[in-house]
Amino acid sequence: MTQTDRIQPDHAANGSSREPAVLVTGGTGFLGSHLAVQLLDQGQRVLLLARGDYKGHSARQRVQRLLDWFDVPDEDRQRLSVLEGHLDAPGLGLNPEDAQQITNCVREVIHCASNTSFASRKREQVERTNVQGLDNLLRTVGKTPCRKLHVISTAYVAGTRSGLCPEELTRPGAFHNVYEESKWRAEQMAAEHCARMGISLYVHRPSIVYGDSSTGRTLAFNALYYPIRTMHYFQKVYTKDIVDNNGHKARAMDIRLYPDGSLHLPVRIRGLNHGGVNLIPVDHFVRAFMAIRRHVPQGGIFHIVSPDNTELSRIIDYTQRFFGLCGLRIAEDDDFIRQPANSLEALFDKHMQVYAPYMQDTRTFEHAATSELLAGQGIVCPLFSYDIFSTCMRYAVDKNWGKDPQ
After folding, report:
1. How far apart are CA 27 and CA 164, in angstroms?
2. How far apart, in Å, are the Cα atoms of 288 and each of 199, 318, 376?
3. Tens digit of pLDDT for each residue in 108-149?
4. Of 211, 165, 183, which is closest to residue 365 (Cα–Cα)?
5. What string of H, E and C letters represents the secondary structure of 99-115?
6. How do beta strands 148-152 and 268-270 pair?
């Protein structure tokens, strides 16, 4: 038996089984893969909608690599059926056998698939996946005995509002980017469909998710990782310049290498001294999701967030401690008016443009009801400590920020 054969038993492949199953979309993504693996671990039968990638890997090959990465045992793999399809296509692009399998078996849907781009130039693609893709899914699910729909949304559907963001369906005045807007539209669409069809709707709104708090393992190196990775890149470039080229470029930027190996990197980072970033580890997200799924039969809106935002100044401090840097500091917009950005700061700003609203964030998220439910199950979001930061960054550096095969 080949590894690929281990993914899916024959009776599931031909659609003959009517054993109840959970349909998971986005199962090759960061959050979706974690949830799919956890469902298998709990003895669930899972139908995973997936597609091939631009490198020529089939859906089954992509899923196989993820199962290997998670070290999923053979007995769990036998409860997984990979359905080759595409969320953007009518009928999800499924062949007749797989479409019939969904009709026969699906009692619950976990919708994780999403285009997470913030770029305005990609509006069409983002809306096609996040809005039209959900519509395609709902039309397909409407033909099944499904009674529960979980939508993985984001706490940032709150849009440009400031202060406390309620744990309910609301309409913000505006959004920072097309991603926030499309996820809000998806929530509204799902709510209307579920109300009409008598389906229990669960809207899960995580904040910014990073790697495992114990091991640092992750499949995604964006969001929290991106600005830190950029600083690490600056560090390598200018350290090499000083060591190998007598520091010609470094001196022009007032960058200095100290005898202890630390690097003085004078970069002002746009932000607010009173702002913060809401961060949760992926292991907390998975535990929270499973507890909500298990203990809340009627659905609802759930902010899966940290009770406290992490100040940008703390992330800068952690970054300097871990990588051996100094000279980084927060500066508000007025500071850049008095002293225009140098070339390094301008380059950093360019790289961070799409993340700026999250680095200068004053939003907080109502979470009392969800946190009370989770605390009753012994689930509390861990504080984003230096120990957790260093564990995650050590893994990221070891994996070359996701560039090396995992």
Report:
1. 32
2. 21, 27, 11
3. 999 999 999 999 999 999 999 999 999 999 999 998 999 999
4. 165
5. HHHHHHHEEEEEECCCC
6. unpaired
